Amino acid sequence: QLQLVESGGGLVQPGGSLRLSCAAATSGFTFSVYVVRWYRQAPGKEREWVARIGPTDTYIDYADAVRGRFTISEDNAKTTVYLQMDNLKPEDTAVYYCNANLASQYDYWGQGTQVTVSS
């Protein structure tokens, strides 16, 4: 089972920025034909969808709660997907997960990275 690895989380003050990255633990894997989504789960709450990209760069969308503040993108080699998070708010505090899906048959997740927004 392919494993994804998220990185870039941490502690940031309100109004600050972080950039999360998602890549496969296996070298040679690309996201070329996958839809990649970021989800987050705050303590005591259900996991919620945040943003998606793919299978091409034209298919990008965001949850209302983050639209205009977060930007999803991928590198030219399509080996890494990023989530640029600006103007962070305390309510953005959560564990952020990366998911890659292909036709509902191939569905891969990472272990998550913690984002804490606090003064």
Q: Label the structural class.
A: mainly beta
Provide the low-confidence segments as ranges.
Answer: none
Radius of gyration: 14 Å
Distance between the termini: 39 Å
Number of strands: 11
Helix content: under 10%
Number of helices: 0
For the biggest sheet, the summary is: 7 strands, mixed
Outline type: globular
Order of helices and strands: EEEEEEEEEEE
Mean pLDDT: 95
Estimate what percentage of residues fall within beta strands.
Answer: over 45%
Please give a structural write-up:
Strand 4 (35-41) and strand 5 (48-53) form a beta hairpin. The mean pLDDT is 95. The chain is globular and about 40 Å long. Strands 2, 4, 5, 6, 9, 10 and 11 form a seven-stranded mixed sheet that branches. It has strands at 4-7, 10-12, 18-24, 35-41, 48-53, 60-62, 70-74, 80-85, 94-102, 106-109, 113-117. It has no helices and eleven strands. It has 119 residues and is mostly beta strands.
Summary, kept brief:
The chain is mostly beta strands and 119 residues long. It contains no helices and 11 strands.
